[in-house]
Automatic annotation (TrEMBL):
One of its GO terms (biological process) is transmembrane transport. The lineage of its organism: Bacteria, Bacillati, Actinomycetota, Actinomycetes, Micrococcales. This is ABC transporter permease. GO terms for cellular component: plasma membrane. InterPro entries: BPD_transp_1_N, MetI-like, MetI-like_sf. PROSITE patterns: ABC_TM1. The keyword Lyase does not apply.
């Protein structure tokens, strides 16, 4: 419990610092909100002053930041400068698509990455060479190029999957998001498979595994209870990092497949200097990244009890 409280406290500090950096960065960027609002028209100083007062732009910087962060804590991110919609409602309408895409991709990474890595480590020969070749290919192929290849083959060529839109309902969403999820997860699957293969191979040569085999324990029991479980710490670390990174990489796939997620919304908002929307999405991404890292730390104790004991001793 003390360890969990410390990690939650650290997450709160990261969120506060990140929110300040995001808020500051948007106002340090070239241009200003009032310049966008007037759309290049020449207006009188009185009109400009009224615009600044309406959006709180004439308040001191720290006051604007405090009002924004207090509103964000209560779920109020302000109003969009472009659409005049409530930012919270605007972002919430885009979250389901990105959430489906990221969770689908994370599931593919966990199942295919870890599964292929374990198979490559436990089965030598042509099968292992094919997995190694595939992982090398995954390193080399950019996400956007993978999306184009998948659309050309399975979308346009074979017609198995749609190449645009996010669908309606659970089954239709899964069908529409299959190609985007594969394109988004393809490089990460290659990395996780390579790390898993190496980790399992190293664990197979460890002393406790050799002793377990020498005692006559069933090979399947030794494989799952000793080899795979003890090799998962580095795999969980790289898996958590890549899953967290899916949020940042999703905007490329959302643009390629014309999905209505928060990634495409973020790109459009940056281009139009819609400050409130950019700040809200950036804060959500930082929060998601922090929560995933926290989950990875907690999984360490589940996978290896020695980690839990070490944390208890430090506390």
């Amino acid at each position: 419990m003390p360890y969990l409280l410390r990690r939650l406290g650290a997450l709160v500090i990261v969120l506060v610092v990140s929110s300040f950096v995001v808020f500051s960065g948007m106002y340090l960027a070239p241009g200003s909100p009032e310049q966008f609002l007037v759309q290049g028209r020449t207006v009188s100083p009185e009109v400009l002053a009224a615009i600044r007062q309406q959006y709180g732009l004439d308040d001191p910087f720290l006051v604007r930041y405090w009002n924004w962060i207090m509103g964000a804590v209560q779920g109020d991110f302000g109003r969009s400068l472009v659409t005049q919609q409530d930012v919270g409602a605007l972002v919430a309408s885009r979250v389901p698509t990105t959430l489906y895409l990221v969770l689908y991709s994370a599931l593919l990474i966990a199942i295919l990455g870890v599964g292929l890595g374990v198979l490559a480590a436990t089965r030598s020969g042509v099968f292992e060479k094919l997995i190694v070749l595939g992982s090398n290919l995954g390193f080399a192929v950019p996400t956007f190029f993978a999306a184009l290849i998948l659309m050309a083959i399975f979308g346009v060529g074979l017609g198995w999957f749609p190449v645009s839109g996010s669908g309606q309902g659970f089954a239709d969403r899964i069908w529409h998001l299959t190609l985007p999820a594969l394109a988004l997860s393809f490089p990460s699957i290659a990395v996780v498979a390579r790390i898993t293969r190496t980790s399992v191979r190293e664990e197979q040569g460890s002393e406790h595994v050799i002793m377990a085999v020498a005692r006559g324990l069933p090979k399947r029991f030794v494989l799952w209870r000793h080899t795979i479980r003890n090799s998962m710490l580095p795999v969980v670390t790289i898996l958590g990092t890549h899953v967290a990174g899916l949020l940042a990489a999703a905007f490329v796939i959302e643009y390629a497949f014309t999905l209505d997620g928060i990634g495409s919304l973020l790109v459009n908002s940056v281009q139009k200097k819609d400050f409130a929307v950019v700040q809200a999405i950036a804060l959500i991404m930082v929060l998601a990244f922090g929560l995933i890292n926290l989950l990875v730390d907690l999984l360490y104790a589940v996978i290896d009890p020695r980690v839990r004991l070490a944390k208890g001793a430090q506390s």
